[in-house]
Amino acid sequence: MPLPTTIDGFHRAFALVQPEGLVGYINGGASEGLTVGRNTDAWQGISVRPRMLATAGAVDTSVTLLGQPEAHPIMIAPMGFQELLHPGGGRLVAQAAAATQTLYCHSTFASAGFAELESVDGLHWWFQLYAFADWGFTLALVDRAIAAGAGAIVLTVDLATLGLRQRDVDSGFTLRGKQVVPCLAEAGAPDPRLAPMWASLHHDLTWDSLAEIVAHSTVPVVVKGLLRGDDALLAVEHGASGIIVSNHGGRQLDTALPTAYALPEIVEAVNGTASVMVDSGIRSGLDVVKAIALGADAAFIGRPVQWGLGLAGAEGVQRVMSLLLDDFTRSLVLVGARSVSRLDRSIVAMPSHAAFRN
Ligand SMILES: Cc1cc2nc3c(=O)[nH]c(=O)nc-3n(C[C@H](O)[C@H](O)[C@H](O)COP(=O)(O)O)c2cc1C
Q1: Whole-number Å distance between alpha carbons of 92 and 102
Q2: Residue 207 belongs to domain with CATH number
Q3: In a domain, 134, yes or no
Q4: What was the pLDDT predicted at 357?
Q5: Is residue 87 part of a domain?
Q6: For residue range 23-38, what is the model confidence (pLDDT) as tens digits?
Q7: Range of 162's domain?
Q8: Structural domain contains residue 346
């Protein structure tokens, strides 16, 4: 079967070939799934004000993230359990990331362990941390990730409890609780099977928990899951080097603010004191151009990577990344900014309903 030629084509083909319960788990959101749709609508609803005759010559997609040079600003978001989508899925995503010079964020619940990541040549990766009630083990996990080469620790903070995944309730889909979680096994968890580890997640994190992780870590710490400027300021005050504006792809709290609308407030609050990244609903290179014009340093892609993996393994993920990167390069040229640094706020026009009051 030839691979789809659009991201939406991957979306539709994925839903045709995978079991309904799994499709619901990957694509579904919290409660009624309103934020899932609003995320993508929000990016698409931003208009572009292209400049003409502004730049010439070669396109430069390179960026610097947390002090490190990267080939481009489109990154793979952390997502667990890739094995459900393709045998060896955890390793295949990492390989596809390396092949497309994409920075990869590896989930605590990913299907590949640290040792497998270490064997992927040329891979740039960060480790997404879910904290555990056993704080000593949490810090051991941080140490193991850094020893394996993680360039940053990404602490996810929007899982104070699991959101209501209504599609999973209706379909009866559950993750296989007996499977071993490789990163947790390698970090020395006494019982690294999913069910007991999931039950021992730390659900009472505070800003002091962040400060403790920052104090312990020898690499930069990024906070994932913020939607408010005041929270972003607190994150910086407690030592975060970066912030990921995210509503977890609409999977946690329904009607949470679309990230395209949360981003400007956070960029303004942080005011250059930390890197700002964004995810949730980003489905094209043009969406990434809009995110950077609004002040983001980079953008993460979630579900489209899963669609690629589920359809065609590493080749599918590479194709998804290539489609996004081609669109990003083309969009840079068309908006009149042939390097990422030339994107600015004047390139985008927000719809009037994006201005919210509280
Ligand atoms: C199947 C799936 C698993 C996920 N697992 C994690 C995870 O383990 N850790 C985490 O911080 N976020 C996780 N996320 C959220 C993603 O990192 C990201 O925030 C979100 O998918 C971005 O939105 P998008 O899918 O609309 O691009 C997961 C998302 C999906 C769809």
Answers
A1: 13
A2: 3.20.20.70
A3: yes
A4: 67
A5: yes
A6: 999 999 999 999 999 9
A7: 7-47+62-338
A8: no
Q: Tell me which amino acid residue 176 is.
A: R
Q: Given the CA of residue 225, which atom of ligand 1 is nearest to it?
A: 19
Task: Give me ligand 1 centre to Cα 50, in Å.
Answer: 31
Annotation marks residue 203 as catalytic:
no
Share of the chain above pLDDT 70, in %: 99
Give 164-191 pLDDT, tens digit per residue: 999 999 999 998 777 899 999 999 999 9
User: What is the token pair recorded at 228?
Assistant: 């408010």
Residue with CA at minimum distance from ligand 1 atom 13 = 79
Going from the Cα of 77 to the center of ligand 1, the distance in angstroms, rounded, reads 6
Alpha-carbon torsion 198, 163, 79, 239, what sign? negative
Residue 129 near residue 100, CB atoms below 8 Å: no
- On the 0-12 / 13-18 / 19+ scale of CB atoms within 10 A, 355 is exposed
**283/320 Cα distance (integer angstroms):** 10
Q: Ligand 1 centre from 302 Cα, in Å?
A: 6
Active-site residue identified among 72, 106, 248, 353? 248
Q: What is the pLDDT of residues 86-125, one digit of tens each?
A: 999 999 999 999 999 999 999 999 999 999 999 999 999 9
Rounded distance from Cα 303 to ligand 1 centre (Å) = 7
**Alpha carbon distance 326, 132 (integer Å):** 39
145 within some domain: yes
Total number of domains in the chain: 1
The predicted pLDDT at position 353 comes to: 86
Separation of CA 217 and ligand 1 centre (Å)? 23
What local confidence, expressed as pLDDT, does residue 358 receive? Answer: 64
Instruction: Locate the ligand 1 atom nearest the alpha carbon of residue 109 and give its number.
Output: 8
Give the DSSP letter string of 308-335.
HHHHHHHHHHHHHHHHHHHHHHHHHHHH
Whose C-alpha lies nearest to ligand 1, atom 3?
A: 79
Query: Which residues have C-beta atoms less than 6 Å from ligand 1?
Result: 26, 39, 77-80, 107, 109, 128, 156, 224, 246, 248-249, 251, 279-282, 301-303, 306
